[in-house]
Amino acid sequence: MIKPFLPMLAARAEPFDSPEFLFEVKWNGVRALAASADGRWQLWGRGLADYTYRYPELEMLTGLPSGTVLDGELVLLRDRLPDLEAMLARHQLGCPNKIRQRSQTEPITYVLFDALCHQGKSLLAEPLYRRRQVLQQLLEQLPEPRLVFSEGIVGFCQAFFEQAVAQGQEGVMAKHLCSPYLPGRRSASWRKIKPARLLPCVIVGFVPGRHGFRRLLVAAPCEGQLRYVATIHSGFTSAVSAQLNELLVTRIRSQPVVRCPERATWVQPELYCQVRFLEWTHAGRLRGANFQRLLTVQEQIHSPSFDGVASCVLARPSRKAIEAPGRKNLDSGRSHDRE
User: Fold this and answer.
1) Which of the four CATH numbers 3.10.20.600, 3.30.160.250, 3.40.50.12230, 3.30.470.30 does domain 9-193 have?
2) Contact yes or no for 229/286 (Cβ under 8 A)
């Protein structure tokens, strides 16, 4: 079989138009590379983990010419749109019987966007437009409904991006038409363009680290009530981390103001921040949450979006209503609570 290699990665970008770039939908699923050789097939992910056994419905990949390697995204479509949560639930199955059953009742779709090897010949140094021509020809020779070619347009990203986001897609990929494929490397030749979803949140706790806090727990209004929505691990500059460390230690309290899923040091709900995220999950959590910045007092006063957070903080339930059984240490201001 072909030795697996790492997929090429993309840099972040804002929408732009260019006749030198191909723009296609950024499919919201699980990245996977596939290979076919000597009547066998294999599927692997970004960390080279073997995915073959998880998706028996893709056995038709053996119909590709021997020595073929393709790149694409595994998606579970519902109402013609990718459902990431359902896809991840399927991806995490380990029981062979459950995998076999789900492959029949909810088969995934493999959206393909690149051909990396053809009949044993490497295409990595070939320009993107040539590799996609090979891919399109391969899929025409193997007309399987579960193998889908990722269509795109050249030149006009901004209008395409707006349409894709309005439709409910994760975003858009921009790829230079002459770019080679660089396994394991992040390159500006490939760019991922996602909408900026911002949400004002209140900091309700933090997980301590060696030099101050390690991550923040934040809450936001959900159906008129303040609820935990995310644990934030990234987005902190050195200056912001130092500022937050000073602000957090003076606001420690013994109990959380809302139910939270992990042990933390709790703080008074007095610090507000802006959080950037990818999407809401079905459970009411923020996926891909990143810290943007602290909100100033003036922003808190004049921002309409902040009013909902502030009013929920002021109207939060009593301590008895939010406490749950668990280990508690009142001296350190920590408690453990599972949803």
Assistant:
1) 3.30.470.30
2) yes
Q: Which of 93, 117, 111, 104 is nearest to 36 (CA)?
A: 117
Check if the beta carbon of residue 339 is closer than 8 Å to that of residue 217: no
Enumerate the domain spans of the chain.
9-193, 197-335
Whole-angstrom distance, CA of residue 291 vs CA of residue 300:
17
Evaluate the CA torsion angle 257, 259, 261, 262 in order and state its sign: positive
- Residue 217 pairs in a beta bridge with 205, 231
| The listed CATH number (3.40.50.1980, 2.40.10.120, 2.60.40.1580, 2.40.50.140) that belongs to domain 197-335 | 2.40.50.140
Residue 17, SS3 per DSSP: coil
Q: What is the pTM of this model?
A: 0.70
Report H helices in the chain. 84-91, 96-105, 128-141, 157-167, 238-249, 297-302, 304-314, 319-322
- Report d(CA 271, CA 287) in Å as an integer: 21
* Per-residue pLDDT tens listing for the chain (339 residues): 788 999 999 999 999 999 999 999 999 999 999 999 988 999 999 889 999 999 999 999 999 999 999 999 999 998 889 998 889 999 999 899 999 999 999 999 999 999 999 999 999 999 999 999 999 999 999 999 999 999 999 999 999 999 998 888 989 999 999 999 999 999 999 999 988 788 899 999 999 988 889 999 999 988 788 999 999 999 899 899 999 999 999 999 999 999 999 999 999 999 999 998 888 888 888 988 889 899 876 565 455 555 555 555 555 443 433 333 333 332 333 333 323
Question: Would you report the helix, strand and coil content of the chain in percent, each value rounded to 5?
Answer: 25, 40, 35
